[in-house]
Task: structure prediction
Amino acid sequence: MITMHTIFIPLDERPCNYEFPYMLAEGTELTVERPPLSILGLKKRPGDIEQLWTWLEEKAEGAGGAVIALDTLLYGGIIPSRLHEFTEDELIGRLTRLRKLKEKHLNLKIFAFQLIMRCPQYSISDEEPDYYADWGREIFRKGYISHRKELKLATEEELEELQDINKRLPKEVLDDYLGRRRINIQANRAVLDLVKDGVIDFLIFPQDDSAPYGYTAKDQQVARQRISELDLELKAYMYPGADEVGCTLITRMLNETKGLKPLVYPRLSSIQGAFVTPVYEDRFFYETLKYQITAAGALIASSASEADLILLASTPGETMMEAVSQEHPFFSYDVYRNLMELIEYGSYMMKEQGKAVAVADVGYANGADLKLVKMLRQKGILFDLAGYAAWNTSSNSLGTVISQALIYTLYGRTQEHLDFLALRYAEDACYCATVRKEMNAGVVEELGYNKFLLDGPRGKVAERVEHRLTEVLEEKINGPAGRVEIVDCYMPWNRTFEVGLKVKYHAV
Result:
């Protein structure tokens, strides 16, 4: 097996960005090298930008490929990209270093991604400027209604709301927010020049927390227009997502290195699922699915028989809910979709037709569909799947499971694959859909903390999480098909939203 040395600059230090792509590459032809955690940031604290650039320039010697989160090299990470005080000239100067890097290493294939700055709909400053705690909802609604007003779509009620916001929203708050947005979108435009000139071979603009109207949607239009002006439609994609893109581009790098174009056949649990717009996203599910598959270096197959991979997508029947609410689902979850048929079909195609089958569990946001997981366990196929994911947004899950499953079609049921599959069940089903809900429903407060501020990455909350996870794994996952052992458990950003896990799969 001929290996290719690949450099990886992650979007930040969280496991989803730092660990997942690295884990997926283990055992493949790509030998991935990433910067040490010591020079990356910590949530709102940016990484050491100069050290990151120096590390990249040193490691480029002898590398064949690079997967780069440009937000890390420009701002120090995803959260710092929303908080920085850099000028446009400073950012353009940093991008010039990438041009010089390519001039020095002409054979270095660079796949990059850079976010369109998000605009959350809520007043929480956990990942935004401090003033977002007081004015976040108003900032979002001002952008949303103003955009609809420009398009002559705003209702009378919306226009009245906009007038009220304009009276109350402090000018200095809005100026700071919009000033940073203007600088960031200019950096987005400048990166496209690097694609045009062949410095960057392939680019993704992921849309974190996107919506059909508002500041983010308008910034997308600016970037989209520039893509069209430079004739880059086939080299610069834009679609919902963020934290999964490292996995997507590592997989694309692998497929291109091997000269492959795998075929993926999607099968949905609901005929209407294709036309559901997932929460935090701006378009029909099926349109994003096409992007996610193509961005990973694959194509949609027209039939199951020709496919290298069958992707079972458990979508909502009509409107997507949060996973924490699934004990009382909308009527459409039971009536407008059919999980039973989806699982029977997947089991048959796997066992009788010898097909690789993966599950995109995207019926709910922010966690697994526990009914689906139960049925997969009853069928005895939890650890026979080519991939599984159900964390955070629909696109986060799609990009992760597609990447894992495409790698599975090349290397099969390795220990690395089984460990990553076990991690998904432990995190997506047991933590995101079960334990996190319990922690947020009083357990954290009983310990004297709150969900945004715990007692450190490895404090009493982490201990309680690990203990409860062990119980839930026994209840919902472990069985004759195998068992999952928790090796490490911590809270990376000192909050309950994400968990850091290392797990091991054991055959029974």
Summary: The chain has 17 helices and 15 strands. The chain has a mean pLDDT of 96. Residues 415-446 form the longest helix (32 residues).
